[in-house]
Amino acid sequence: MDVSDTLKKQILEKIIEPYYYNDVQTILKNIKYWSISGSIFETISKLLVMFGAVFSFSSGFFSNYNTTLSFTSGTFSSISLACFQFAIYCNHESKKCTIRLNEILNKLNIAPIDVPHDDSSLQEDKSQKTVITNVNDIESQINKINENNETKKS
């Protein structure tokens, strides 16, 4: 059975193109969401470290409240670590979304979008930007993300 050109055109215009349009819009929103979330949680983490340090030093000065201040300091520091780990996760999710977006753009023969990810506080090169140009680049970006995860766990 041969499918008519009219049917192909209708499928492309009414189903496939709107799907790609909605998918690109959703991915762009997700990139923004994950980037903002990462920044917020990293900021919270740094503030909690500051408060933890203040309570830690205070526990040596206020000997009557030593136990309470030490516990509070440890709690702030633990929550800070969790927030920082979540910030790292958010930044990696943002990068994954960028990779997915550029995969779609490549399928549509559109040049990939240069979406910078400022991870300077996460000890990565500030000039690094995730730009995908072909399938080999996608695989190398995924390998870099996995290597960074393993390096940070060590």
Q: What can be said about the biggest beta sheet?
A: 2 strands, antiparallel
Helix fraction, binned, reads over 70%
Count of helical stretches: 3
- Give the integer mean of the pLDDT values: 81
Q: Write down the Rg.
A: 23 Å
Terminal residue distance: 58 Å
Shape: rod-shaped
Number of strands: 2
SSE pattern:
HHEEH
Strand content bin: under 5%
Q: Write down the domain tally.
A: 1
Q: Can you list the strand order of the major beta sheet?
A: 1-2
Given helix and strand content, the structural type is: mainly alpha
| Oligomer state of the chains in this structure | single chain
Low-confidence parts lasting 5 or more residues at pLDDT below 50? 120-135
Secondary-structure map:
Blueprint: H1 5-61, H2 66-107, E1 115-116, E2 129-130, H3 135-153
Antiparallel strand pairs: 1-2
Give structural notes.
With 154 residues, the protein is an all-alpha fold. The chain has one domain. It has three helices and two strands, in the order ααββα. It has helices at residues 5-61, 66-107, 135-153; strands spanning 115-116, 129-130. The protein has a two-stranded antiparallel ribbon. Helix 1 runs antiparallel to helix 2. The longest helix is centred in the first third of the chain and has 57 residues, at 5-61. The termini are far apart.
